[in-house]
Amino acid sequence: MSISDENNQENLDNALFFTSKLEFWQQTVFDSDMLGGAAMVSPPTKDSCSTYPTVPGISCKNFALPSTGLTFEQRTAALRQLQNYESVQKTYFLGYQVNQSFNYEQDLKQYLNYHINNVGDPFQSGNFTVNSKFMERAVLDYYASLWNTRWPHDPNDPESYWGYILTMGCTEGNLYGLWNGRDYLAGKFLLNDPTVEEEAKKASLSGQSRSVPRRLIYQQAPVLEENPNAHTPVAFYSEDTHYSIIKAMRVMAIQNFYEVGTEKYPQENPLAPGQPWPKEVPSQGGNDGSGSIDIESLCKLVEFFAAKGYPILVCFNYGTTFKGAYDDVEAAGKALLPILKKYGLDNRKVYYDPEDPTKYDIRNGYWFHVDGALGAAYMPFIEMAYNMGRISQRAPNFDFRLSFVHSIAMSGHKWIGTPLPCGIYMTKTKYQLRPPDNPEYIGSQDTTFAGSRNGFSAMLFWDYLAKNSYAAQVDQVLYTENIVTYTYLQLKALAEKLGEDLWVAHTPLSLTIRFKRASDDIVFKYSLSGETLYVKGQKREYSHIFIMAHVTTALIDELIQDLSQPGAFPKQEEEQPELEADDIYVTHKPKKLIHVPHTGRGFK
């Protein structure tokens, strides 16, 4: 039976199911007296199975949840279908930078029956003792060493690292890093409130009950007359940046150079005077290039705003989402530092008491964050392989060897491979964002982005690192690089065989290869990611694959076989579609509409 036939049968089954579902809901309402009226609930307005996306291999009705629950037989049938579906999709998984090769079941499955919560700071045990913070600290020490910063964490040593394991993926780390950078550059301070206990004591004498929280006062450094822009960070990131950075900008109300330039300096674009500002920093070679940030363009843009007194926030990519490119963080930083020093943004005084000019901090006037979702976990072992003479090239430095790097974020589910999203955020103690609260309730400072944090992720990290030595991980990165080379050559050979330019491209040392977009059936089978780019004026729709540790030559051979079949590469339209309303959103200044492109962000 074809997929279309299966879908038609599914729609017929769903129509019959909706009829029975309405009858069921009517019966539920009728029987509500059994629960003292508590079962009065809302019936469906339409058949949800005909409304939601159809998933090949999944029967929607098998997973609907009535108030009575499912029988043992119904649950077994649904879970069997789930197992079959997930197993097949995992077997052919190629499109995203997620490692599907791992086995935590033997050591950790019993902890699925525990609620393990690492709420609060990882270096303070806290009162919620069912936690895995001792494992979290070991994992953080491991990456502090790997990323060449001072460890262990010491709150009295400003050069030592601080960090935590994320409950989300690298997106949370990017959010936290940009939050940290925004407040650091904006002159935010958190000061102890000395009046709390006295207020609580007076209230109790009046018969009022009041707790004594360890409250902190959030304070903004005063605006300087000589530089009204001194506490207004301006953000810079390349056109190949992951969409989570754009989301973080919106959440944190951080303006990028395009927004500020378009609003205040519309005719002064330093890359092309009199022309509209670029929406992001150009990447090398544009859409047909490597995908790493163009340092010359970055320097021109940064200097324009540094000259006007704006503090500078730069987000570098270390393994971009689509092209797998590595920004040369070291070269960019060395090029930017003289510019920042020229305009007094290398180090500056930030005053926090307008009445007392002796109270100030010395801070950088810039913040460099590295989004190392995949590369920060992968590239240290490529560097080791390079130093051992086992590979001929390595990527640029990105870590805390570079004194100008303020924060790094990475994902755990990408290179390492975990059954749920997780990651790491790391900075130095001297840059650490002070906690917005120090709640007595949890017995720990609330220094992380989330409240409750998933303690299981720390256990997954620890289990992987305990099983995989540096040597084992060096072998693994070399294996994936070999599979990348094999795949690239097979795709080039296929293009020659078909007599068609398949636009096969690969950024050096990346784990991703892009090529002409495949048919919908192939995209679904291999979970292929897609992106539309313009190359020399030509609109091109691409698919891409990521070679992670679970990928084998046999899987690549099957992909090539499928791509060899007639219809594997549908004809592509050549006209540029009009922008849809979704391509425009409102900034924090509601009267001004700002367009930021979603190309290259995975918004699909």
Structure, explained:
- The protein has 604 residues and is α/β, with parallel strands linked by helices.
- It has 16 helices and 17 strands.
- The strands form five sheets. It has a seven-stranded mixed beta sheet with strand order 1-11-10-9-6-4-5, with helices on both faces. A four-stranded antiparallel beta sheet has the order 12-13-15-14, with helices on one face. The protein has a two-stranded antiparallel sheet with strand order 2-3.
- It is globular, with a radius of gyration of 27 Å.
Key traits:
604 residues; alpha/beta; Aspartate Aminotransferase, domain 2; seven-stranded mixed beta sheet; four-stranded antiparallel beta sheet; 17 strands; globular; disordered C terminus
Write a brief caption for the model.
This protein is an alpha/beta fold. It has 16 helices and 17 strands. The radius of gyration is 27 Å and the shape is globular.
